[in-house]
Amino acid sequence: MKRKASLGLIVGFLLLFVLSGCGSNSSKVSGTEDGKKESNKKMELVNDGKLTFAMSGLLKPLNYKKDNKLVGFDVEIGQEIAKRIGLESNPVTNPWETIIQGLKGKKYDAIIGSMTATEERAKQVDFSDPYYISGAQIFVADSNNTLKTKTDLKNKKIGVMQASTYKQHAELYTKDIKSFPSDIYALQDLEPGRIDAVITDKIVGISAMKESGLKIKPVDDILTTENISIAVNKDNPELLKEINKAIKSMIEDGTYKEISVKWFGVDLLAK
Fold first, then answer.
1. Is 146 buried (19+), middle (13-18) or exposed (0-12) by CB count in 10 A?
2. CATH code of domain 50-133+227-264
3. Bridge pairing between strands 110-116 and 50-55
């Protein structure tokens, strides 16, 4: 009898142990699922399952159309970010002068179009970590030997792209400023002498020399260092978080460098 009682106690303890173990395991699973749901907050997207991002489509080789398809450095960066977030890439174009209004109007989820992160723009949108570093550069016709430094720009006719930050630089030297729908159009006016100089992104100017064969040259050092970032709406913090994670991982695994070297021959984030 004592042996049977002992056996019964052992079985009871084993059963209690199994049941308590199951209860503990169930609790862990539930906690994990809750944590996963908490970390995967829904991103606000214009089109479900897609990352729709805008650019002017006029900045070769950053973003432009080839065979009616958007291509370029910005486009590939956007495609890689979308892939890492688990979304389909959907690049679109919008006139640069209204591109922020389009974002705020929910026409697209982000602007990946070589936009400089400024304090003024940051009042309207949130910016990601920079995905490349550039700066304002003065360009003149290759035959122009009178404009050698920024001080030589005084009272000269300077071309800039509409709604760009470069107009502010030009205003430091002259009131004679002509706006263009794209930097390329402005640079094309240098050789015929319709304008004296252009202030634009250093990368845009150098690329125009290489890709379009424009007979132009840079003058002096860059005027400012600019962080080129991705803009998203202020009510979309989860998307911004995912974009920053994607940029970081691209840099760490070397994918960013591959894309940069493909389009420019250098790593645009290299110090």
1. exposed
2. 3.40.190.10
3. parallel
